[in-house]
Amino acid sequence: MKISTRTRYGARFLLQLALRGGSAPVPLSDIARDQQISLKYLGSIASALKKAGIVRTLVGAGGGFRLAVPPARITLHDVFKVFDGPVQLVHCVTDASACGRSADCLTRDVWRVANSALENSLKGVTIADLARRQGGKQRKPGRKTK
Fold it and tell me: Is the pTM of this model over 0.90?
């Protein structure tokens, strides 16, 4: 299993909105520039997050995106579900019928424990937590990272 680029960029997008304070809408072009993500690609990510009710938009002059939910209530698990669906290390973890050997499989319980650990880890980190960790470390806009 691999966490998708869309999930990672979605988390970065939400983090940037949280770091901006959430009161005034932030133009998508500002976030795309600051995060060095193509505007078109970030637009598709923002659209999915809007559809999920995590962000909202304000159209017109002074418009942009802002969080629709307090950052303390948005978990990485929420972001993961928008782009990658349910946490599922292997198919048999969530659907025993996916494998004819599920009932007798000696490793299925291990995969279920690992799956649960990952899911709980993602549920245990909020966008507010990430913003606190970021603290004074926010990159200057337009500066390249290594």
Answer: no
